[in-house]
Amino acid sequence: MDGDGPYLWLSSAAPRRGFRRLPRSGMCVSAFLLVEQDGKLLLGKYADDPRWEDLTGLDEDRWRAHGKGWTLPASQLRFGEEPRAAGRRIAEEVLGLPGLALSEPRVESDHYVPARFPELGMHYDLWLLFRATLPPDARLERPAWYRELAFHDPAALAPSDYARGHEDVVARWLAAR
User: Fold this and answer.
1) What is the model's pTM?
2) Does the domain at residues 28-175 carry the CATH identifier 3.60.130.10?
3) What residue ranges in the chain does DSSP mark as E strands?
4) 99 in helix, strand or coil?
């Protein structure tokens, strides 16, 4: 049908093969920090803290639903935010690590029918993956909005140990290393 894709041209004036309205299940543009140390990745578990909404765009239902599993430091991009600025914002505001050196973003995409909302159909994700390494003198302290924050060997975690589909992001990252 005209205006229902498959090209991710999102506009009421999109060409016939673009989307003239958002896909019902939505589309997310997210930045992820893959902070590495000795072959391990920095992963956290959300605390029940309303600051997640301002920090990353997560609403209360989402931070509570996903607070039991491990997540990468991540956020949705803000409207008009340059991808590198999003990476720096995650380092500074979410992790409290100003000046963390980040790689150029690696871009990945995914699409799937969400388990929580299957009736809405296909959801689209665009992932901006930033590699980061803590300097030897950096002091990592757990911000109050994390219940846990630590380095873990991703090979030692089962997919079910992750939240929010972050196991897919980690798997894609590891496969392309």
Assistant:
1) 0.92
2) no
3) 27-37, 40-46, 74-76, 106-112, 123-133, 146-152
4) coil
Please count the CA atoms within 13 angstroms of the CA of 92 that sit on its side-chain side: 8
DSSP letter, residue 62: H
Reported as a single tens digit per residue, the pLDDT across 52-89 is: 999 999 999 989 988 899 999 999 999 999 999 999 99
* Residue 20: per-residue pLDDT: 85
As a whole number of angstroms, the distance between CA 40 and CA 156 comes to 10
Name the band, by pLDDT with cuts 50, 70 and 90, for residue 115. Answer: confident
The SS3 assignment for 78 reads: coil
Q: Are 63 and 49 a contacting pair, CB within 8 Å?
A: yes
Domain boundaries, the chain: 28-175
Statement: residue 136 has pLDDT above 90: no
Helix segments in the chain, DSSP class H:
51-56, 60-65, 83-89, 166-175
